[in-house]
Amino acid sequence: MSETDFRTSLVLAQSTALARRGAAALAKRGLSDLESLDSAEVWLQKAKELYNAVPREYSVAQFRFSLGEFLRCLQRAARCDPQHSGVQCWLATAYRDGLGAEADLAEAAKWFRRAADQGVAQAQYELANMFEFGEGVPQDSAEAVRLYQMASEQGHIDAQLALGAAYADGSGVNQNLAESARWFWRAAEKGSDLGQYFLAEAIVEGKGVPRSDTEAAAWYRKSAEQGLASARYKLGLMYMKGDGVEKDLGEAARWFLKAAIQEYSSAQFQLGHMYLHGSWFQKDYVQAFSYLRKAAEPRDNLGRSELGTTMLAQVELATMYLKGYGVAKDTQQSQFWFRQSVATQKQLSKLKQQSLSGHDRELYR
């Protein structure tokens, strides 16, 4: 691997923190000018400067040195004031993401806990995540819920989403659908696209709140207009079926297309199905095949709804190969996609047996 490729890979690997803001740029300036200003605020500010600078011209060696200086500044700040909550959060993030040293989740949890104990909502949320997934601490769903609750009461939106999911799933707390909907509503009211989406899901199914297709459609629309692919797909379905809105296949196709552009497989399936059967669009086997081929591709971490439409797309694709619709007849390809649909059906059955609530826990991380 070339030096340039290595540096690019390193940047991508730090996507949750480093790649989005960049590493720092004080390697040439040194830190001797700070020795006489030994305060937590000074060292924290220097660390932030290192963190926020963009090292476009740096070699791999300079890049690593910059990260090392970033971590050393944070450690120096912590020695100056061990109770500084801002320093604690930054240091925890550095240890968690491996910025300047090998990742150390136990050390990260220690620093997040210190900040959480001082009432820092972000630290409470991050530590709750670690307890929920057993990262750096023993897995403890009840402790995760306790911390999510503390952060949620301070208005932390991601914590409110996680708490809503915990109450929906009965994870770490007794299942309470009304309480779940309440926390989704609080996040939705603050403009969270996920909060709006999950509130719509609760309303359309009548889970913890009165069932109302009209109100669900309104919340799906708010989320869809912010760009959430799953909400765009669900709004398209409501227009296709006439649930909560006047039936309009043109509007359905418009929202499906928006979601399909975002690689949402269920929307790709619906568009393919519409082209295949001439629903709204003029029947077009080539277009149908194109969308169904995308939707049929196996993907990791699909929810039950998307997995179901993936299976249906695989069946449609197998039929198109068998009959030569939009593609040359190919018995072997037809059999392949039929086998894929059977495998997907087994995967879907296994997922249903796990009695999941349908909330993707990774969304809250």
Features:
68% helix; 18 helices; disordered N terminus; 365 residues; Serine Threonine Protein Phosphatase 5, Tetratricopeptide repeat; disordered C terminus; 0% strand; elongated; mainly alpha
Give a written overview of the molecule.
The chain is an all-alpha fold. The chain folds into four domains: 103 residues, no CATH class; 60 residues, Tetratricopeptide repeat domain (Serine Threonine Protein Phosphatase 5, Tetratricopeptide repeat, Alpha Horseshoe); 84 residues, Tetratricopeptide repeat domain (Serine Threonine Protein Phosphatase 5, Tetratricopeptide repeat), CATH 1.25.40; 92 residues, Serine Threonine Protein Phosphatase 5, Tetratricopeptide repeat, CATH 1.25.40.10. Helix content is 68%, strand content 0%. It contains 18 helices and no strands. Helix 4 runs antiparallel to helix 5. It starts with a helix and ends in a 12-residue tail after the last helix. The N terminus and C terminus are likely disordered.
